[in-house]
């Protein structure tokens, strides 16, 4: 393998959001295929059936990555493309797609960052076993991971087991707006527990594999929480909020158990790890992969659940089209907080970007200065943290191309590249051109000390 560049500038996507071809070459259905078929679950009934047709247009997309000068590309493997029912023999045509893509990335000088599961669980595992509520699903996931390591491990140096397990639980089990569309907190904590066990078992499989020549982690997401006032109660509530968000899924892979504050407040709601699970979890992150978009302001509340805090509005700061407050200062604070809580880990930003009110001209070009401003401010915040001791080694913008934004359908656009929904024509936006200049200069106008 080639030498890794000093800093990895890149972009990210996920399989169900871009690939399309949901019935091609033996791919089985995912929970998202089924979810999108239910009326009212997604905006305009949008689905990933076609998405960006990356499955057929991947050569064009790699060429666009080369034009942008990307040093890294984060994407996910679709589990139902590799194992249509989530178990059993590998679908050769399915895995071959990823082999071709990875080879093309290497030919283009682009480092692949591969996520094993970005939410598109094989539907059969949900219908037959109950998905992440089943005790044996972590081992089934590890067997799938092993199959992928065996085929792709010689060409991939950076792996992530799961993307944002916090969202899987919060959206899928607490609020019911993602699959499996439940609203049961006890089930949610149980599902989160099994997601962590799945990560641990997959990492153990990787570290035992002959193809282990890289590093592995999972992609966490979190906001930072600012206290609403300077009162001790609000300051303590803000710290609890960060622990409840970042610490919930990151403490176990670092320390081997949930945060003590969560254990104390949630009690039996949080399942207990077996001694073996705790052993496998502890130290199961080779790097910290962070997805960041926004931060919150919170205050103490005696009546808002066992963690006793509530989120308050931020009317005085800009908001993206997702209605998320723009808080690059929270990005800086979160990086510093994570570095203090999980010392010794290198950092990669594996998602950061903004949904903006894009307006394409007749050629498909989008002059998205608002997205450029968002990225510039967040790049600056990240490299401020780097100067203060955070070992930041790469930064991947979400997303490479306008894609299916899950239950929001195609209504929200995050891409550096515009994708026309009728023709699927790709056009690099102003933000993409700007990012290409950042990469070409290695960010010299934005950051120092790299």
| Separate helix tally | 15
What is the count of β-strands? 13
Q: What proportion of the residues form beta strands (DSSP E)?
A: 5-15%
**Architecture per CATH nomenclature, i.e. the level-2 architecture:** Alpha-Beta Barrel
What does the largest sheet look like? 8 strands, parallel, barrel
Q: Structural class, judged by helices and strands?
A: alpha/beta
CATH superfamily: Glycosidases
Question: Span between N and C termini?
Answer: 23 Å
Q: Using the CA coordinates, give the radius of gyration.
A: 21 Å
Could you say which overall geometry the principal axes of the C-alpha atoms support?
Answer: globular
Order of strands in the sheet with most strands: 1-2-3-4-5-7-10-11
Share of helical residues: 40-55%
| CATH class label | Alpha Beta
Low-confidence stretches: none
Task: Please write the string of helix (H) and strand (E) elements.
Answer: EHHHEHHEHHEHHEEHHHEEEHEHEEEH
Predict the CATH topology: TIM Barrel
Mean pLDDT, nearest integer?
97
* Number of structurally distinct domains: 1
């Amino acid at each position: 393998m080639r030498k890794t560049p000093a800093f990895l500038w890149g972009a990210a996507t996920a399989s169900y959001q871009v690939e399309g071809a949901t019935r091609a070459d033996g791919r089985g259905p995912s929970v998202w295929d089924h979810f999108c078929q239910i009326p009212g679950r997604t905006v305009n009934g949008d689905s990933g059936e076609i998405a960006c047709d990356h499955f057929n247009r991947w050569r064009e997309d790699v060429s666009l990555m080369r034009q942008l000068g990307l040093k890294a590309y984060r994407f996910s493997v679709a589990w139902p493309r590799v194992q249509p029912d989530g178990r059993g023999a590998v679908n050769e045509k399915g895995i071959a797609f990823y082999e071709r893509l990875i080879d093309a990335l290497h030919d283009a000088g682009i480092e692949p960052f591969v996520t094993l599961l970005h939410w598109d669980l094989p539907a059969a595992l949900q219908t037959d076993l109950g998905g992440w509520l089943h005790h044996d699903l972590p081992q089934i996931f590890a067997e799938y991971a092993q199959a992928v390591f065996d085929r792709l491990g010689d060409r991939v140096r950076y792996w992530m087991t799961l993307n944002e397990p916090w969202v899987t639980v919060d959206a899928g089990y607490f609020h019911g707006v993602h699959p499996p569309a439940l609203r049961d907190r006890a089930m949610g904590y149980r599902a989160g527990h099994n997601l962590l066990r799945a990560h641990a078992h997959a990492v153990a499989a990787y570290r035992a594999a002959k193809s282990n020549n890289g590093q592995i982690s999972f992609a966490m997401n979190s906001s930072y929480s600012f206290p609403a006032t300077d009162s001790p109660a609000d300051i303590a509530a803000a710290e609890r909020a960060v622990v409840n968000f970042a610490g919930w899924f990151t403490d176990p892979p670092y320390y081997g158990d949930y945060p003590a504050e969560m254990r104390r407040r949630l009690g039996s709601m949080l399942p207990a790890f077996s001694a073996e699970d705790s052993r496998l979890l502890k130290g199961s992150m080779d790097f910290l992969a962070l997805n960041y978009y926004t931060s919150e302001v919170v205050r103490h509340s005696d009546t808002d659940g066992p963690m006793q805090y509530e989120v308050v509005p931020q009317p005085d700061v800009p908001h993206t089209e997702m209605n998320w407050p723009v808080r690059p200062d929270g990005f800086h604070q979160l990086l510093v907080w994570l570095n203090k809580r999980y010392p010794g880990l290198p950092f990669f930003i594996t998602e950061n970007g903004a949904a903006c009110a894009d307006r394409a001209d007749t050629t498909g070009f989008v002059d998205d200065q608002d997205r450029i401003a968002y990225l510039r401010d967040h790049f600056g915040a990240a490299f401020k943290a780097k100067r203060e001791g955070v070992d930041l080694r790469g930064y991947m913008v979400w997303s490479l191309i306008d894609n299916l934004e899950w239950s929001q359908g195609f209504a929200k656009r995050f891409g550096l590249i515009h994708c026309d929904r009728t023709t699927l024509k790709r056009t690099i936006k102003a933000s993409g051109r700007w990012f290409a200049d950042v990469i070409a200069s290695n960010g010299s106008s934005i950051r120092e000390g790299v």
